[in-house]
Amino acid sequence: MIPAENIKWILALKLRQLRAAKGYSATMLAKKSGISTSYLAEIEKGKKRPTPQKIMALAKALEVDYDEIVSLKLSEELTPIANLLTSNFLNELPLQLFGIGLEQLMDIIADAPDKVSAFISMLIQVARNYEIQTDHFFKIALRSYQEMYNNFFEDIERDAANFKEEYSILLKDVITEGSLVQILEQQYHYCIDQQRLGAEKKLQGIRSLYKLEDEQPILMLNSNLNTSQKNFQLAKEIAYNHLGLQRKGGLPPSLKIDSFEQLLHNAKASYFAGALLVDRNKVLDDIDRVFSKDVWDGALFLKVMNGYNVSPETFLHRLTNLLPHYFRLNHLFFLRFTHTRKSPQYHITKELHLADLHNPHGNEINEHYCRRWITINILKELEQLQEKQDEQGPIVRVQRSRYWNSKREYFCITLARAMHPTPQTNSSVTIGFLVDRNFKEKVNFWDDPAVPVRWVNETCERCGIEDCQERVAAPTVLEKQEKINELEQAVRSVLEEASIIKTD
Fold this sequence. Notes:
By secondary structure, this protein is of the alpha+beta class.
């Protein structure tokens, strides 16, 4: 069924199509139908829904049946647009976040419907071939929105600071689980259940569930979470209430994304939680102290992070909020890898790129990520430590990564730990800074000789590094491109010899 708000767009497209088929200008059709040119323009832009009397006048002027105009069926060549309008996808897209209105988008479609329809068809085929689902588009849209603002949102920063000041007696320098639980129970009348979720074996990977029962909110926390993870889930729940973010009970976004709004609200709540747990002013002073060292000090970095009682992911992601804004370290990326022990597969499960699409980045075509990356090597190292002793992490490592066949180099700080509560699974999180003039000015240890320097690449399939001991797949993509280059050069040579291409 077509959403009611999209019916006007189909009418607008159909009217333009019928008018074009008759060879009428908008002025001519307005004159023939007795409708003002300005009103007709509003109909064709989807801004007005004409009355039955006006539709009848338009049908008579176009010499078609009334039913042909009001029918929701578009011509065959416009089927992709019809399918798009039939779905609720356009209404779910967060166009307003990027300063684009749905009316502007429909204006583009209406100006060249055949070409836009072909373009939409192409996008649908690409999505189908690469198994890109709607939730992928939502995730990409969210990431683009975060990147557009350098992942810094002053309004949420201010809300978190004001909240912390309001509850200063409970929320001291190190925020505890007990203080967060007390706020949820007393201020928002929550029931906190830390038994049920952890007892279900199939739900070991679910960190929290929300339910509203008899007007009382219930937060189920997985009992297998560690303290830092519980704190983050509790702080997120506070954010939903304090920021007035609408939510519904049911599956969390990590399992099922029902709408972009759901994903956006989850991101805002997560940002608030990070800002609440990792105080802006304090962490900026701490990081400045780390960066002022002439040599990399991993123990100091861990000590600083542990001082906030948060997970490595929360801490590094918090740095992506603040370092671009306050240190002008705009060119950075954030990656989270997950790895099941004994498995040869490594998966990027979260990424963020500021100021550019940096390497490395995720791919959905089952290529093998370069094993020279510190973010993968640290997972191998953690697994070896776990086999020898009960080591759960976090451990921290650094690397200067020089990308093969490129002038780019990144300074990467990576932390790895066992994932709670998911059994036999480890994760690594990395923040990588482009080594440019600004980074060298802000970070004294950028050229610490003790920091390993390695040539790296995106994936094995695209890599030409010779004698790579870590390679797990042949450079098939690179070899294919080289063959194309050789064929292209051979064709040019033949054409030049035949004097078809003249050279100086």
